[in-house]
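Please fill in the sequence for the structure shown.

STRUCTURE ENCODING:
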């Protein structure tokens, strides 16, 4: 009988462990009371390119929880006598045709308290992120020294009561340039006059690709320590040339240049992110201020192309015939006011694809003047004939 009971107990042990796959020092984890999570990426590092709900499973995320404004779900470290609060790590565990998010280290697991809880999370996981001891006010989550080489997400779920899994909806912390194309429409003066443009460098001036992400107690992200010394920039290799024969070209595409992320410029918590408050140049020369009234020193966001522009034979408007002698031109990124897709800010969570139609001009100088101003004519008057009457008497 004892042997039979042992077998039943062993069978029960296997049944329970197959459901939980988690055993701590005090016995089986009660899934009904453990704090567990479901994660969803918003819209659409180890994950290459844009993060989605599916490829998010290829990396881990970090999460911290507060109850009564006091930190409750966390890891603690002591650094130079200072207590530092860090996130617990969640990993995706496949199971059959599905799976679930589980604790990477089961010793981090906590059970639901009597009070409601607030949760703050980020992806991908890094142990550099730190948290405040209380979420009563101010910034709660800090992800320092972030670079925009990959998609970074954050989440907030406030006022959560005990449930099987806390739903986390992740938001993108950055904006993104997905594509940049140039074209030379056949009806334009550039095409008809035989102009050519050769591009070897792309820079979105006065954008920021490094800094710190902060998330406040309401779940709104902002940036600090941002720098424009490392703007979003790409080398175009091989160079792209547009002319009568090749009327379009791609300078950035999501396949070969997937790292087009940068800090958003908006400052109104669009998509839960406050931006850098950088102003985009609208193409108006009068809006350029600063040292010598130049775009390069004005702090305005616009596109800078390192390129050559010539008439197809010998005259160069930008750069020269010398192989390495390239010049620069500037292009506003706001679009046309009549275009419903015109923009005034770069918003977090939005991907932008641009097509620059070089119809009658290619861009502007650093001072905001058109690069190409066609030599055109108008007839203002025609001299009146002066009548001369001559009478010859012989």
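FILLED IN BY: designer on duty
SEQUENCE:
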């Amino acid at each position: 009988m004892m042997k039979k009971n042992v077998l039943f107990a062993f069978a029960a042990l296997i049944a329970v462990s197959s459901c939980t796959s988690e055993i701590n020092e005090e016995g089986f984890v009660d899934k009904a009371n453990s704090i567990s999570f479901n994660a969803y990426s918003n819209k659409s590092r180890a994950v290459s390119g844009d993060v989605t709900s599916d490829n998010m499973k290829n990396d881990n995320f970090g999460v911290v929880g507060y109850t009564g404004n006091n930190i409750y779900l966390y890891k603690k470290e002591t650094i130079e006598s200072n207590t530092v609060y860090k996130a617990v790590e969640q990993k995706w565990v496949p199971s059959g045709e599905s799976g679930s998010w589980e604790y990477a280290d089961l010793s981090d697991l906590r059970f639901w308290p009597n009070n409601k809880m607030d949760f703050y999370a980020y992806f991908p996981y890094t142990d550099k992120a730190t948290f405040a001891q209380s979420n009563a006010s101010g910034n709660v989550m800090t992800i320092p020294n972030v670079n925009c080489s990959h998609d970074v997400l954050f989440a907030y779920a406030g006022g959560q009561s005990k449930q099987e899994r806390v739903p986390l909806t992740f938001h993108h912390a950055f904006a993104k340039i997905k594509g940049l194309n140039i074209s030379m429409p056949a009806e334009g003066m550039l095409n008809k006059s035989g102009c050519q443009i050769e591009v070897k460098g792309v820079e979105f001036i006065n954008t920021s690709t490094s800094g710190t992400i902060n998330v406040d107690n309401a779940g709104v992200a902002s940036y600090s320590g941002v720098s424009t010394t490392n703007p979003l920039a790409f080398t175009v290799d091989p160079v792209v040339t547009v002319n009568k024969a090749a009327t379009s070209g791609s300078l950035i595409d999501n396949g070969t240049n997937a790292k087009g992320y940068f800090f958003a410029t908006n400052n109104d918590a669009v998509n839960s992110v406050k931006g850098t408050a950088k102003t985009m140049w609208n193409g108006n020369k009068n809006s350029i201020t600063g040292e010598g009234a130049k775009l390069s020193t004005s702090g305005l966001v616009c596109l800078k192309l390192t390129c050559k522009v010539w008439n197809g034979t010998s005259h160069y408007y930008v750069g020269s015939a010398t192989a390495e002698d390239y010049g620069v031109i500037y292009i506003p990124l706001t679009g046309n006011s009549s275009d419903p897709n015109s923009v005034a800010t770069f918003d977090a969570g939005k991907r932008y694809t641009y097509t620059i139609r070089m119809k009658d001009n290619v861009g502007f100088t650093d001072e905001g003047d058109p690069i190409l101003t066609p030599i055109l004519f108008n007839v203002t008057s025609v001299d009146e004939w002066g009548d001369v009457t001559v009478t010859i008497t012989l």
